[in-house]
Amino acid sequence: MTNAADMALSKTVSLQHFPSDFAWGTSTAAYQIEGGWDLDGKGPSIWDTFCHSKGRVFEGHTGDVACNSYQLWDEDLKCIQQLGLTHYRLSFSWPRLLPDGTTHFVNPKGVEYYNKVIDDLIANAVVPMVTLNHFDLPQALQDHGGWESPEIADIFDSYAQFCFKTFGDRVKFWITLNEPYVCAKLGYENGILAPGLKEPGTLLYLVGHNMLRAHSRAWHSYNAHFRGLQGGMVSIALNSDWAEPLDPGCSKDVAATQRYMDFTLGWFACPVFGTGDYPKSMRFRIEAKNLELGFTKGQRLPKFSEDEPKPLGTADFFALNYYTSRKVKDASSRPSELSFAGDQGTEAIIDPSWPVSGAYWLAVVPEGLRKLLKYIKETCNNPVIYITENGFSQIGPVKFEDIDRCQFYQDTLQQVSKAITDDGVNVKGYFAWSLLDNLEWSEGFSVRFGLFHVDFSSSELKRTIYRSGEEYAAVIKRYHTYTKLDN
Ligand code: GBH
């Protein structure tokens, strides 16, 4: 530890306000860090396909090598040790374990890799949290319709059960899917992410629905067949912005803001934590748009069938990914083509007073996190919440003295602490995105979110801690000191 006493972050954050069993983690995702895209029997994922097609990703970057965590896991482990993490969230590459996505063939090398990762974490007293699928669907499944196909729910369930069986003796925190909102909207509405389809106003609802069905199946399987023996928890990671009306005195903006929250968080949170169905405003607006546009080709927003496991109650905790906030303006009377934005009837704006980090969409609004946490407490039945992602990006020349990112973490942790102590929100953990600089999806390696810098220009892919990493380590260390004294 470099001179912990001098670290501003560790001094400023009121650490006694974090519960003594608070989880301090970082998050990563397989495709963004692993590389080894075709090594040792791994099958391709839709992200391999996407990056290998021209013009999809910034300057043709791919995850073929990325941080090479597949071969450099020992280096990642050193980073984890250096931060003193209590928890580490990683994702499994589904096609590394099951090359064609199904359990007909298991890749033993993939099992061996994740066994080593999990065993090393546990040997170092780091609790693993595993996401079963973070965007990288096996290409073989995509070839059969992927998330558009109703069969995907059963196939995902088999994959999940395989993972529970193989790793569940040691893994007690499971996330089925990462950000169904992002996967559906960016993958099928505007095509920025794999599989890169642009079918506005239609496919995203179908895909989101099948993701919820898949998640529900897996949770019910865990509940029925594994929970008794393994005693773990299963959830789904939901991303959401926090939204406020552009003009708080304008009732149309206020209503539009509620719609924004409904179409972002509520789309997935309502079925799982709320009413068991999509938000009323979604049903209402989509129905009204169908009439207005004369859309008659069936349901755009599907119904949950009576004949299969229900989504309601299928999360043992709330896994929240929060990055940013928006001001919202009513746009409900604007004529529109069939689209998600048209259905929503909102316009989302970045307040000019908010600093923007090195990603065009990421306005820095730490107090939005506190408000969102309170909103989740109030609308989702006061769940246990783990903040499974939150972070700050750099672009351009690398700054190792990343003071702005230090400030960001300081302000954010202050807000989390207030949410716990002043608002009584049951936050049990915080996972910084990300352990390492990595492949930021369609932005390639140009956007850096790591607490460790990765030198992508050299084949060693050397990891070097940023100032923000040192400060995060100091926070964790100080926290542990307190618990030791408390005991
Ligand atoms: C997370 O998604 C991902 O889980 C993680 O893999 C990723 O690296 C991390 O964030 C950082 O981006 O183009 O205006 O539609 C974050 C949520 C929401 C961020 C959509 C990008 C694009 C906004 N994402 N957003 S827009």
UniProtKB/TrEMBL annotation:
GO biological process terms, alphabetically, are:
carbohydrate metabolic process; glycosylceramide catabolic process
Tagged with keyword Membrane:
no
| UniProt keyword terms in alphabetical order | Glycosidase, Hydrolase
Q: Identify the Gene3D superfamilies for this entry.
A: Glycosidases (3.20.20.80)
Task: Output the Pfam families linked to this UniProt entry.
Answer: Glyco_hydro_1
Gene Ontology cellular component? Answer: cytosol; membrane
Q: InterPro entries of this UniProt entry?
A: GH, GH_1_N_CS, Glyco_hydro_1, Glyco_hydro_1_AS
| Keyword Membrane attributed | no
Location of the active site? E389 (nucleophile)
Give the molecular function GO annotations: beta-galactosidase activity; glycosylceramidase activity
| PANTHER family noted in UniProt | CYTOSOLIC BETA-GLUCOSIDASE, GLYCOSYL HYDROLASE
Instruction: Give the family, as the similarity comment puts it.
Output: Belongs to the glycosyl hydrolase 1 family.
What is the protein's name according to its record? Cytosolic beta-glucosidase
Q: Whose protein is this, by species? A: Silurus meridionalis (Southern catfish)
